[in-house]
Write the structure tokens for this entry.
Amino acid sequence: MDCLQFEDAISDYLDCGLARPVRRTFCEHLLACRPCHQTFNDVREALDACHSLREPGEHSVMAFAGVTQRILNATTAGEMLSCRTLDALISDYFEGNIESSCETIFSEHFAVCDSCRRLVDGVRESLEAPEIIEVPDHLYDRIFAATIGIRRVA
């Protein structure tokens, strides 16, 4: 199990919704990967805090009143957009189908995420490249030789 699969499975694990073999690989990854272990603890603590907000009492009402604003204040817009979401929306971004308010979030994400910035730069370069690329004649022979054997000229 990789880190993305682990993150996707956290809520199912906490809800006891994982099949036994998946639960086992989840637990193995939890023990082996320190960043995922920290993420798991953060999610569990957040859920515990949410459960305590559901309990009646004057403290929970006051705490709940400003929770949305505290979350927004603690998170920059660039961090709110996940790399996975950016990857799914990248073609819309380059085709201009993203709302202007979302373009700001994209730009702020690029400012804090090197891998997404490199991805976008690479896509931008490929889109700006000339349409026709000259291919050397010997390249076709090398491709045939590497895949199906030597090309025979009739």
User: Anything to note?
Assistant: The chain has two domains: 1-74, 76-154.
